[in-house]
Amino acid sequence: MKKILMLSIISLLALVVAACSEGSTGGSGEQKTDDKPIVIKFSHVTSIDSVKGKAAERFAELVAEKTGGKAKVEVYPSSQLYGDNDELDALVSGNVHMIAPSVTKMVKLDPRWQYVDMPFLFENQAHAQKFFESDVAKSLLNSDKLAGNDIMGLVFWENGFKHFTNNKHQLQKPEDFKGLKFRAQAGKVLEAQFNALGAGSATISFGETYAALQQGTVDGQENTYNNIDTQKYQEVQKYMTLSEHGRLDYAVFVNKPFWDKMPEDIRTQVGEALKEATELEWQLAADENAASLENIKKSGKVEVLELTDEERTAIAEALDPVYDEFGETITSELIDGIRNLK
Ligand code: LMR
């Protein structure tokens, strides 16, 4: 009898422990916040001192402040948890809850995200900013394709214009690209861009790009000043052309079931934190990219070339075939929608 009583008490205790430790994401309905904070895992691939890295850290601080510690953002930078090849899958499966990839990497789910690679589509930073807050941008964030994969886009984060670097010779005219091989982030549009210039390309994850440049697997790459500087590509590249031929921007995506399950008040506070972090991120993008260009120049390791208007136009014209090939995939709704925001 005593033994049965003991066993019943042990089972009861086990049930209580299990209920308490169901934790922040388990069970059905809203997440529990009474004992442990809700943990939001935020994974990204750039370094902690990059534009995205700094903004993610500030977002984490703001979430802690605004929720009074009821939610906690754990930031995993530098592909520590997941790299380019698996962070989207990790988000879909709920192994991480937030990511902020360069939007072209969303090509796996929806090819329209390659709008960002369409050559010379954006005129300047103000144009990109107008786009982030436009209905065209919202149509991408809230698309059925994302919802069908249990993810939702929340906001756009900025990085900036891309520029070419390489270690063979200066790139001033379309012919100069001939025969070189470049690292590309993802997708067919970038492949077509390099083809149109007579160059080859290889898709290489961000985390492996430095080594690929160092070992000569590729001759060059294209990126923003801040990514070049914070990844120290100036150590392994000799030439940089200030081309502004395409953009590299981000969107913050969340796992939708996780987001929907958050208690409403916490979700609102996290949303407010994200709004504030986003304003800071946009400012950081401008400031950090400007500072990075200075750093690259100061390193004395890279020969920096500014293109004349005529030289930029010649490269833009050489890239026109990319519009013939991909205009339909990206859709005129997006391309014209972006052009009309100028
Ligand atoms: C790259 O792969 O070059 C970038 O997408 C990295 C990043 O997240 O800025």
From TrEMBL:
4Fe-4S listed as a keyword: no
Signal sequence range: 1-19
Domain of life: Bacteria
Keyword Protease: no
Coiled-coil blocks: none
Record-linked Pfam families: DctP
Matches recorded under SUPFAM superfamilies: Periplasmic binding protein-like II
Example of a GO biological process term: transmembrane transport
Keyword annotations from UniProtKB, A to Z: Signal, Transport
One GO cellular component term: outer membrane-bounded periplasmic space
Family: Belongs to the bacterial solute-binding protein 7 family.
Protein name per its UniProtKB record: C4-dicarboxylate-binding protein DctP
Protein species of origin: Sporosarcina limicola
